[in-house]
Queue: 3 jobs
Job 1
Amino acid sequence: MKKTNTILKSMAVASVAGMALVGCGGEEKAGIAPEVYTDSLFAVMKADRTNYTKLIVKRLGPSGAASIKPAEHWKDLENGAPLPAQMFRAGAEEVGRLTDKFTYSLQSTWPINKQNAPRTEMEKAGLKYIEENPGQNFYGTEELGGQKYFTAVYPDVAVAEPCVTCHNDHKDSPRTDFKIGEVMGGVVIRVPM
């Protein structure tokens, strides 16, 4: 990750340079390092996703409850509820309607839904990095459509049995040997610079 480290060091230098202007009568710049910003966003996303999985889905399914049934085609069921990945995607879509300051998505190199496969070289590199380096995050910059972005990729780990069961048993899953605690994909957060 020399490239990523170089980018982050450059950002740190730029930040320090910005602060140096304060003592010379320049305009004070307040800000937050991009990795601190995306780390904070990810902490909220991870907490919500983990809690929904453990506190709601795990208690209801996959064996199910009579009142609410988490299911892939939940909209077709009178008592259906979205699966954790679908809940996460719904949140990302709602954030997209509320702000253009950042975007996020859940992706995997083993996606059940092909829409969740990585598309950019940065996404592919980020997912590969977090798969090969458990517990580590990936940071980098990329330019898409003439816009420069700070892009962070965080591991999405199987936190409960329903995660593993759903992916291992799904007919469209390209991988069927997931275990609790393994990286199943990644959360990609992108911030325009």
Job 2
Amino acid sequence: MASLISCPHCGSRPKEEFTVKGAVVKRPEPDAGETAWMDYVYLRDNPRGRYREYWHHTSACRRWLIVTRDTVTHEIESTIDAAEAGRAEVRS
């Protein structure tokens, strides 16, 4: 895994300051069926290649980030603030 993560708020920081919290998965609608909620809560892909995950900058700004990385090479493609990404998604 890359040793530095580019935090949009703090700049390049050691990966040890972050905690990986899991895949970015679209939340089902509240009235979605049991199967949709079961898949959302318990089932995850184990992809080879590009993958989006929530990371928490635990030891610094404590912001939630969305990190896009390659699961094979561990190269990080991008990091964005999760709250800003959510606001952009609502606007579109």
Job 3
Amino acid sequence: MTIWRTITTGLITLIAILGVSHVSLAAPAETRQNLAKESTLEAIMQRGAIRVGFDTFKPWAMKDKKGEYIGFEIDVARKLAEDMGVKIRFVPTQWAGIIPALQTGKFDVIIGGMSVTPKRNLKVNFSIPYEFSGMSIIANSAKAKGFDSLDDFNKPEVTVIVRLGTTAHVAARNFLPKATLKVFSEESQTIQELLNGRGHALVASNPLPRTLAKEYEGKLFLPLKDDFTREPIAFAVRKSDMDFLNFLNNWIRVNFASGWLQNRYDYWFNDNEWESLIQ
């Protein structure tokens, strides 16, 4: 009886252990499924529309003569929605408040030429880069005559114009720490300030400086031959949304491989055919 009781007790204990193990293995799987159901990706599919946050930066996103949004990022957002089989809802948002707006759920993703920075990455998750951008300088011909290096602009008596909250603002502080910075929230304000001669130069990501140099030839000029930074551009999503991030990363890989992203980049950044749409 003692041996039989011992065997019985052992079997009961083994069954209990297996039962607990089964529960412990099943629980994380169930948790993962619940997390997937709560992801932004699932919400977009249920809603039938993706909400995209952005601000206007020429030629990333801007309005054409009919008042419709056009630009590289607008093409990217439309293609993303098309591949998901959902509608697109654009949510224009001031750049300075675009990350808080994402965090509070005003939209699902930022597709707005956003550069990846460690400071931003503390607040949002970034996809892999789908493009790279570089900073350049466009200068006022009368005020910055003879300037042809970063050192020429890095002086207290030199006024450099930048847009608030952009990586151009950060680049200007890092590369031109001695210059006097004038900061504006709107891109149109920075351009007007430079054209009015109330600053020596404007720091912005290309192709805006290249475009302005052509548009205002004789009044503005490019003092540097090349961009002085190279920054990765990526989608930004809310923290801990790994399902959506995985989808976006693979969408970028597929559209890189097909050549679609390069095609749209060449159209908006290496050609000026689109300028007739806005002028």
